[in-house]
Design brief:
Structural class: mainly alpha
Order of helices and strands: EHHHHHHHHHHHHHHHHEHHHHHHH
Number of strands: 2
Distance between the termini: 25 Å
Radius of gyration: 23 Å
Largest sheet: 2 strands, antiparallel
């Protein structure tokens, strides 16, 4: 006999065998309106027809939202720091790489969206189903570590912006505490519906676009040099490290998990193939537009610092902490001081990315562990994992810009390590017909996707090699790194081999 409602735990509702954690309840999903032509199509072809209905601007608007939330990860403070350092050290010469890195990121995110729409489950849920418990737990820990590392960078970025906008009145630790409260803002907005939350993110992205476009206008970069930088690939020994950083900042492990869950916020009838194809088509358009916007914003930041600091003595010393003051010294006050313009843009980037980090943390935890938790408690746990170490960091490093930059390098390494543990499961899943049905990717798409994944993993491997060769010394540390590298490589090989022989989760459920 099942327990009564009064016997259930107050904070956590355990899942029954027939009930599993889902990204969104049916009542939370956005309803997609049906045109008269759609009703006629259902009557004529039934539930199994293939091709998607004709394009509709109204439907594109209803599907718009998840891609822009996903694009926040391309605009977080870690990316902005990579942009400004690339511009200061390499000038305009890495703009082509920024463009192609964004294109690679788009490919990965489209695969993530495709997985979520076609299966009705997000990546964390599918990893729990398809891998043994021990491997699923390792993947979960890796995803959580990547999220925590990203969140620390985002919270520190917000705290720096708050310090700038208050003229240093509020120290970093106070900005961290203020930023920590955004999880409750997120919960408040979520109660009013997913569309309201998406509207808030649209405002934050618009704020970044306006702020950095204003800076771009004040800097007046060379149009011809900008165009050459985008169209002509150029790389040198001096810029190789920044080039690796540009690519490494684009593909974020937690964002791959996030997007596969966000696309389930729309109501899609999985029994009708053309409905699924329609959703995939609209999400492709929306995600492409969102990442074009993110590319332009990143372009603004890179070119402003390329114009102001390339080939100067300050180029190698610029980071998030001092970038605002350097901009102020270079371009002056004007009608509205550029220092505060930078602070506003950085604050919008930090706040938006910390909220999406909280969102991603909820999906990752719920998907891998398969239990439901009160939203406020889950958000509190997710935020605490990042806020507590971030407060410690802000207290220790508040007066040391150089040390804070070193910490940021370590956090970039932490996230680089995690990339294969999101990319490999994703590529294995979307390539399997038993899981994706007719929506699995074809051989050509598979080849391109695996080449992109291999390139990203090799680039991040180079970053790890460079970092550990310069930071790690001594027999004990070298031995530890050697053992870790061997274990790391073995697990990657296991993931690839295991992916070849996936047993589809719906077959498991039927058996």
């Amino acid at each position: 006999m099942s327990r009564s409602e009064n016997d259930r735990p107050l904070l956590i509702d355990r899942i029954d065998e027939e009930e599993e954690e889902r990204a969104y309840d049916e009542t939370e999903k956005v309803h997609i309106v049906r045109d008269e032509d759609d009703n006629e199509r259902d009557l004529e072809y039934g539930v199994g027809c293939g091709g998607a209905p004709p394009f509709s601007w109204r439907k594109l608007w209803l599907f718009t939202g998840p891609g822009f939330l996903m694009s926040i990860a391309f605009l977080d403070p870690g990316n902005l720091e990579g942009d400004l350092q690339a511009g200061a050290v390499a000038g305009y010469s890495l703009l082509w790489l920024l463009m192609w890195a964004t294109a690679m990121g788009l490919l990965v995110q489209l695969l993530s969206a495709r997985l979520g729409v076609a299966t009705g489950r997000h990546l964390a849920e599918l990893c729990r189903e398809e891998y043994p418990t021990w491997a699923g737990m390792v993947l979960w820990v890796m995803a959580e570590l990547a999220l925590i590392g990203s969140d620390i960078q985002e919270v520190i970025g917000s705290a720096i912006a708050i310090k700038i906008l208050t003229n240093g009145l509020l120290p970093l630790w106070a900005g961290v505490i203020i930023t920590a409260l955004d999880c409750f803002v997120f919960l408040f907005l979520e109660n009013y519906g997913i569309r309201k939350l998406e509207a808030v993110f649209a405002v934050l992205i618009g704020t970044m676009a306006v702020a950095f476009a204003w800076m771009f206008g004040q800097a007046k970069p060379s149009g011809s040099e900008l165009l050459v930088g985008i169209l002509v690939p150029k790389l040198s020994s001096r810029t190789i490290q920044k080039a690796v950083g540009v690519v490494g900042c684009i593909i974020m492990p937690h964002n791959v998990f996030l997007h596969s869950a966000l696309v389930q916020s729309r109501e899609v009838n999985k029994r009708q193939k053309y409905r699924v194809q329609e959703a995939i088509n609209y999400y492709t358009i929306e995600s492409t537009i969102a990442l074009i916007v993110s590319f332009v914003i990143n372009l603004f930041v890179t070119t402003v610092f390329a114009k102001g600091f390339y080939n100067t003595d300050l180029a190698d010393s610029i980071g998030l902490v001092n970038a605002g003051q350097y901009l102020q010294d270079k371009y002056g006050g004007g009608l509205f001081p550029i220092l505060y313009i930078w602070g506003i843009g950085l604050l919008a980037a930090g706040q938006s990315s910390t909220i999406t980090g909280t969102y991603a943390g909820q999906f990752i935890m719920g998907g891998f562990l398969n239990f439901k938790m009160k939203k406020w408690l889950r958000a509190f746990i997710t935020r605490s994992c990042a806020i507590i170490p971030t407060i410690i960091v802000s207290l220790v490093f508040d007066s040391s810009e150089a040390t804070l930059d070193v910490l940021n390098e370590w956090l970039n390494v932490l996230q680089s390590i995690q990339i294969p543990f999101a990319l490999i499961p994703l590529l294995c899943l979307v390539s399997k017909e038993q899981i994706m049905g007719s929506f699995k990717i074809g051989p050509f798409y598979q080849t391109i996707a695996w080449l992109v994944a291999a390139l990203v993993i090799m680039i991040n491997g180079y970053l790890l090699l460079e970092f550990f060769s310069s930071e790690v010394s001594g027999v004990i540390y070298t031995g530890f790194v050697t053992v870790f590298t061997a274990s790391y490589g073995a697990f990657i090989v296991y993931l690839i081999a295991r992916g070849i022989n996936f047993t589809p989760w719906h077959f498991k459920a039927e058996s």
